[in-house]
């Protein structure tokens, strides 16, 4: 039986990956600041304090690294921005130091990153893994985060980094927020591209990366067909049985309410998934209607 250690395991994506791996017969444990809090097997760590239970690394055949403060949870004050960056760097660096010291190193580390790497708004241009980073706050965070996790390769550990798009899920994430108001409406112009992925496909992608030795380096973790904000909102509203109004929420109102964070939802990225599909990974829910049907059925 393979032992898989997950950082950020109790979050939306981590919980889904845990289910997928356990269904495949793997043993899963989480790294947590409160290991006794969960029914899931867990080891202690505290990235802020730079503390980790060394037994966790010895136990693991592979690691999935997802830990980092939620980007959309709170308004981006200067303090919050520091937390967003520091949480990612602290956890990634602590893991690196623990891996460096470990006698039994895991065979692979699969890390999360974000399509925010390309910048808030790349318009209609299809972006690929080799394209340059954007020059805004989020792009800078992602760049530093990837630099911290790419170091695992120096320890001769196969390292995979997934730049994750908009995650569609029943339990939370973007859809829940989009459909919160009594009436669904596009944001801003509604023409900005959203590169989305259904949570079950994302979980399968992480499992696939663990199993396949040929998967290494950076990949965009997005479905095959990016859609505009308007199309996603309209289709989701239909499946949810909610009224849709084709009048965009004005940009100035979003900026007033959300501050700098509004740029994240007013912009968009049309992201290619050619590279991950080239490894032989197959999407089960590459069609938006299929994904929404599964979510709202």
From TrEMBL:
InterPro entries from the UniProt entry: DUF1731, Epimerase_deHydtase, NAD(P)-bd_dom_sf, SDR39U1
Residue ranges occupied by any DUF1731 domain in the UniProt entry: 249-295
Gene3D superfamilies with a match to the protein in the record: NAD(P)-binding Rossmann-like Domain
Residues annotated as signal peptide: none
NCBIfam families (UniProt xref): yfcH
Family membership noted in the UniProt record: Belongs to the NAD(P)-dependent epimerase/dehydratase family. SDR39U1 subfamily.
Protein name: NAD-dependent epimerase/dehydratase
